[in-house]
Write a structure and sequence with these properties.
Number of domains: 3
Oligomer: single chain
Order of helices and strands: EEHHHHEEEEEEHEEH
Shape: elongated
CATH topology of the largest domain: Helix Hairpins
């Protein structure tokens, strides 16, 4: 009997077919089930690892969770490919198909592809070190080659970002020239306030610190803030305004929520105390002919 173009040696004897099904067929089924179970168990172990590393409090938990998600997804994909390949070769052997030519052909094809796919190899090697060095993880906010967004995937070949408008950006790892991680370990929200030259700067700075103190006492924002507002003082003299600069330290990914609320409270406190922000102005010179 021929199966898919290959001689199985069964003939037309029903007893031989039954023996083949009970022996070779059963082994093929066992191989397929074992491969499926290995992939499922590995996926469950990766998910359990992510849950275990998510327990607790503090910044370490956030960082461990991102690391676990990145490595877990990568290991699941890699293991699935390896197990599927090995199971396929084992099934071919059970069907009495000589896999030596297959392996030889794969080796030659791999050599040819290696010469023709140097960019792919570069991407994979760069991705390996990117993950090994923990430069960026799934869930981080990063700027890659000038494009910012939320990191949705970190693969051996590519990084996938989704920007604020929902657009997905895919970067080959070998093409990553600059990478800025905005949510690793901790974050800062940098704040600048423009004041008129007639305003009392010290009074304005006191109001900014007071607004930040009320934010720190708010239970809705306290878990997100790591340190009180740090005011540098006058950072620049610009036409029509004095620029006062400061920053507040937050947990990763929460700097924008904290910063917006801080701006709102500063604006409200300035209005209550009569502190005016700088207003744009235009100077015109008129000449008589």
């Amino acid at each position: 009997m021929r199966l898919a173009g290959f001689q199985t040696g069964l003939g037309a004897n029903p007893q031989a077919v039954g023996r083949w099904l009970l022996e070779v067929g059963l082994r093929i089924v066992v191989i397929a089930i074992a491969a499926y179970l290995i992939v499922r168990i590995a996926s469950a172990a990766a998910r359990r690892l992510e849950r275990e590393m998510s327990h607790g409090t503090g910044l370490d938990v956030i960082e461990r969770t991102k690391r676990a998600q990145t490595l877990g997804r990568l290991l699941q994909k890699t293991l699935s490919i390896v197990v599927a390949g090995m199971a396929g070769l084992m099934i071919l052997r059970e069907l009495d198909i000589d896999i030596t030519p297959v392996l030889t052909g794969a080796g030659i094809a791999g050599l040819a592809v290696g010469f023709g796919a140097q960019t792919l190899v570069r991407d994979v090697v760069s991705g390996f070190f990117l993950i090994l060095e923990d430069q960026v993880r799934v869930g981080d906010v990063a700027v890659v080659n000038g494009q910012g967004g939320l990191v949705e995937q970190v693969n051996l070949r590519t990084i996938v970002l989704r920007d604020e408008a929902g657009t997905v950006h895919i970067f080959p790892n070998g093409e990553v020239k600059t990478l800025a991680n905005m949510s690793k370990d901790f974050s800062y929200y940098v704040l600048t306030v423009g004041l008129g030259y007639d305003e009392d700067v010290d009074r304005a700075i006191d109001a900014m610190r007071e607004a930040a103190a009320t934010l720190l006492e708010d239970p809705a924002f306290t878990p997100h803030i790591l340190e009180p507002l740090e005011v540098y003082g006058i950072d620049a003299f610009e036409p029509g305004q004095l620029v006062v600069k400061g920053r507040i330290k937050t947990v990763p990914m929460k700097q924008w929520i904290v910063g917006r609320e801080l701006r709102r409270r500063i604006a409200r406190l300035f209005a209550e105390r009569g502190i005016e922000l700088a207003k744009p102005f235009m100077t015109m010179h008129m000449e008589r002919e």
